[in-house]
C-alpha cells in the first residue's frame, strides 16, 4: 500500500495468475496452454514482420485480421472485435455493457477474473451457485438486472452447456448483455456464434491462446451484432487504439489460415484428454467430463493440496485452488502424450509409496 495510490489501486483485488516457472525441465500443466508449438507458417509470418515492419504502427482497425476471423466464423467483418487476449476483450465488455448500479450474474465457481473486473469497475455481482453435479444452474442465470457472463465450457470444471441451455440464458435476459466466454470451446463444446444473428444481447468471446497455441502473442476476439461491437470499439479507442501489435496481428492471421495444422493438434489434445481421463479413473480418481483442454480432478486416498505440492517438488506443475468451493480438486492441463504418461507414472508411484 502506498500513499500515492488512487482509491482504484487501493481497492483493486488483482487476479492471481498460474505459476510460470523458469526451469526448463518442469512439465507445465497449470495454465491450460497448448502443448504443441504454433504452426511453422505462423512463425514465418511473425519473423517476416520482425525483420521488416516494426518501425511502423499497426493498423488500429485491424481490418485484415477481422476479415480472416469473420470468414472463419461465418459473420460480417463488422461483427468482429479483436483484443489483446480475450482477457482484454472481457475487460472492455465489462466497461461497455455492465452498469455500476446493476448487479451482474456469473456462476459460483468460474473464471476468477470476473470478480476482479467487477470490483475494478465498481459493478456489483451475484454468484449463482453451481448445481450439485458442478453444472451451471441455467435457471439461476435468468433475470439478471445488469447482465450475465459465463465460460462455456466452464472453468475450472471443463463442463459445457448445450446450445439450447445457452439459449435459455439469452431468452431469460432479453434486456441485458450475455457474454459467453468460449476460451476453450474448440476442444469439444458447441459455439454460440451461430446464435448471434438471432440474439442482439449475445456477445461471444474466443481466443487463440489455447486452440492455436498462441498464448504468448495475446490475441482474442469477440463476435456479436454490430451494435455491441461498436460499444467495444468505443471503449478500446478511449484507452489505446493500438492494442494489437504488428507481430501478433501477423501471427494470428497466419495461424487462423493454417487450418490443417490447427485440426491436427486439436485432435491430438482431445485424444490425449480421453485416455488420460480414463487412466485417472482407473486409479480411482473422480474426473469431470471435460470439453476443454484440461481436466478437473478429485484425487482419492490423497489430499488435493498434498498432490499439488508433491508433484511440484517433482517438477510437475498442476493447478490447485485454495478456495473452499473447489477444495479437494485439482485442475490438470492436457499436455503431450509423453508428458501425460510421465505424470501418470508419477501419480501411480506416489499412490503406491505414500499411501
Ligand atoms: N476465459 C477463460 C475462462 C480462461 O480460462 C482464460 C485463460 N486464463 C481466458 C478467458 C483468457 O485467455 P486469453 O486472455 O489468453 O485469451
UniProtKB/TrEMBL annotation:
Enzyme type, top EC level: transferase
Positions of modified residues (N6-(pyridoxal phosphate)lysine): 210
Reactions performed catalytically: L-histidinol phosphate + 2-oxoglutarate = 3-(imidazol-4-yl)-2-oxopropyl phosphate + L-glutamate
Region annotation Disordered: where it falls in the sequence: 1-22
Annotated CDD domains: AAT_like
Enzyme Commission code: 2.6.1.9
Pfam families: Aminotran_1_2
Protein name as annotated: Histidinol-phosphate aminotransferase
Amino acid at each position: 500500500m502506498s500513499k500515492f495510490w488512487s482509491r482504484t489501486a487501493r481497492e483493486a483485488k488483482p487476479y492471481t495468475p498460474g505459476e510460470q516457472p523458469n526451469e526448463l525441465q518442469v512439465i507445465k500443466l497449470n495454465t491450460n496452454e497448448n502443448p504443441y508449438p504454433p504452426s511453422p507458417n505462423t512463425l514465418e509470418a511473425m519473423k517476416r514482420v520482425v525483420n521488416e515492419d516494426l518501425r511502423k504502427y499497426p493498423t488500429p482497425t485491424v481490418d485484415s485480421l477481422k476479415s480472416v476471423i469473420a470468414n472463419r466464423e461465418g459473420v460480417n467483418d463488422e461483427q468482429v472485435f479483436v483484443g489483446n487476449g480475450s482477457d482484454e476483450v472481457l475487460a472492455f465488455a465489462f466497461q461497455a455493457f455492465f452498469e455500476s448500479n446493476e448487479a451482474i450474474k456469473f456462476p459460483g465457481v468460474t473464471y476468477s477474473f470476473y470478480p476482479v473486473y467487477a470490483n475494478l469497475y465498481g459493478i456489483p455481482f451475484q454468484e449463482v451457485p453451481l448445481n450439485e453435479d458442478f453444472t451451471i444452474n441455467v435457471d439461476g442465470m435468468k433475470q439478471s438486472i445488469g447482465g450475465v457472463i459465463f465460460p462455456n465450457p466452464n472453468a475450472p470444471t471443463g463442463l459445457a452447456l448445450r446450445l439450447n441451455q445457452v439459449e435459455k440464458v439469452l431468452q431469460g435476459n432479453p434486456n441485458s448483455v450475455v457474454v459467453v466466454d468460449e476460451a476453450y470451446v474448440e476442444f469439444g463444446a458447441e459455439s454460440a456464434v451461430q446464435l448471434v444473428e438471432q440474439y442482439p444481447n449475445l456477445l461471444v468471446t474466443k481466443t487463440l491462446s489455447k486452440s492455436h497455441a498462441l498464448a504468448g502473442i495475446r490475441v482474442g476476439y469477440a463476435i456479436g451484432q454490430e451494435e455491441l461491437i461498436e460499444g467495444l470499439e468505443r471503449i478500446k479507442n478511449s484507452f489505446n487504439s493500438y492494442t494489437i501489435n504488428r507481430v501478433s496481428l501477423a501471427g494470428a492471421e497466419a495461424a487462423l489460415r493454417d487450418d490443417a495444422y490447427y485440426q491436427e493438434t486439436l485432435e491430438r489434445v482431445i485424444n490425449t484428454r480421453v485416455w488420460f481421463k480414463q487412466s485417472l479413473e482407473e486409479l480411482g480418481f473422480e474426473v469431470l467430463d471435460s470439453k476443454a483442454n484440461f481436466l478437473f480432478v478429485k484425487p482419492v486416498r490423497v489430499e488435493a493440496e498434498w498432490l499439488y505440492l508433491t508433484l511440484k517438488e517433482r517438477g510437475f506443475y498442476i493447478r490447485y485452488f485454495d478456495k473452499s468451493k473447489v477444495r479437494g480438486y485439482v485442475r490438470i492441463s492436457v499436455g503431450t502424450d509423453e508428458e501425460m504418461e510421465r505424470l501418470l507414472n508419477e501419480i501411480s508411484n506416489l499412490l503406491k509409496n505414500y499411501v
